[in-house]
Amino acid sequence: xxxxxxxxxxxxxxxxxxxxxxxxxxxxxxxxxxxxxxxxxxxxxxxxxxxxxxxxxxxxxxxxxxxxxxxxxxxxxxxxxxxxxxxxxxxxxxxxxxxxxxxxxxxxxxxxxxxxxxxxxxxxxxxxxxxxxxxxxxxxxxxxxxxxxxxxxxxxxxxxxxxxxxxxxxxxxxxxxxxxxxxxxxxxxxxxxxxxxxxxxxxxxxxx
Length: 208
Description:
Layout: H1 2-19, H2 24-49, E1 56-60, H3 61-71, H4 73-78, E2 82-87, E3 92-96, H5 97-113, E4 120-128, E5 131-138, H6 170-180, E6 184-190, E7 194-202, E8 206-207
Parallel strand pairs: 2-4
Antiparallel strand pairs: 1-3, 3-8, 4-5, 5-7, 6-7
C-alpha cells in the first residue's frame, strides 16, 4: 500500500518539476494544489499503514463540532444551506483533536457541496449501543446505489451530477483517520432525498 502511494507521489513531484518550466502564472496555480494532494496522500498512507502518530487527548465533541460549523459559516451561507447540531452535549472523546477536526471539516464540506440551495444539514451526536456515533445528514441530491461503495475511494467524485472542484480525497482521509482511531465509517443515501454520512467510535474511547 505504501509503495503504491510512493509511486503516485513521485509522479506528482515529477509533474510539479515539469511545471516549473511553464509560465509563472500557471505554475503558481498548480503548485498549491499539487502540494495539497501530496499531503493528503501521505496522510492516507500513514493512517492506513498504522504509522500515523495520534496525539490523544480528551476532546469535548460538541464543542469541536460547533467550532467546525463556525469555520464553515460563510461557505454554508454562500450555498444557502443551514447547519444545525443536535443530540448529546456532554460527550468527551479520546482523540487527536487536529485529526478529528480534519475529519469533521471534510464531512461538513462534503455535505455543503452536495446540498441544494435552501437545504439543511443536521449534525447529530448519539450513543448507539457500544458506539458513539456522529452523523451528517443532508437533503441534497443523494447518491446512486451503484456509487455508494465507491465514495470512500481515492480520487473519486461520483457521477457527473456530483462532480465538484476539489482533490477527490476528502472522504478517503475521513475513513483513514477514523480507522486510525479504531472507528468505523458508514453512508446511506436515497437519490433525490439526501445522504447520511456517519462515523462511530467504541464507547471506551468516550465518556459522557
